[in-house]
Specification:
eight-stranded parallel β-barrel; two-stranded antiparallel sheet
Length: 305
Amino acid sequence: MFGVRSPTLPAMLNRPSASFRSKLFVPGARPELFDKALNGAADALSFDLEDAVLPEAKAQARSDVAAALARAAAMPRRPLVIVRVNAPGTPWFEDDLRALVQPGLDWINLPKAESAADVRHVARLLGGLEAAAGRAAPVGLLVNIESALALQRAADIGAAHPRVTGLQLGLADLYEPLGIARRDAANVHATLHALRMAAAAAGVPAYDGAFPDIADLDGFRAEAAMAKRLGFAGKSCIHPRQVEPANEVFGPSAEELVWAGRVDAAATQAEAEGRGVVVVDGRMIDAPFVQRARQLLHALRGVNS
């Protein structure tokens, strides 16, 4: 039949749900940009307290981002709100979590994780902070994969805790220390494929990282299209001009949606009749095709909600 294995009940109850086609980085030290970004076209925002903020400005940036979260919580409609915190083990990490677990925060973007134990440690800290704040909805964890060791362990990292909402590739941190050419499409494809397989094994989405050349929109679009063909859910943007092409590339085309609707309708009828295989437009359709069609329709409902 067409059924797809469901997650365990605890995971289904506790895993935060959402996704994005575009995620715009907003430097935590630039509060004058916050409200414009919250009202922009990106599906998600990632306020950055890590690389975009100098050490002496960390405390002020944290305070400014926390204030932006409070404003976001009051908005009737807003993007998915994510904050990239400083890495565990830095002097700022736990202060970041304490300041940010409040209404208006949806996910934490966790940098520099290299093991499942790292993820579980952060999940425990979040659980304690949520309990103290009386927060019922769990904060999600978008985990960066940005080292060779993390890539090797990515499936375990993705499956480490129900809070994990996806794995995100960080090519600059991964490639630069190893001398790997960032603009070589073959290199990028190999790494994207490896992360996508790991995310699939963990049962979480994969998200593409940033494209550094702001002026090269054709290059951005080509890299995004490569990621889309590999099954990635969305891509990071470092400038607002990258948001529209990301939304276009990762959004389903009209043809895909028509196909998905036909497959879903045919499969629903077959399920009612006790049949496990159907033919749509002369093509045999079984469970993997039905799963993909329903994923497309589900993603569309999420974008339009």
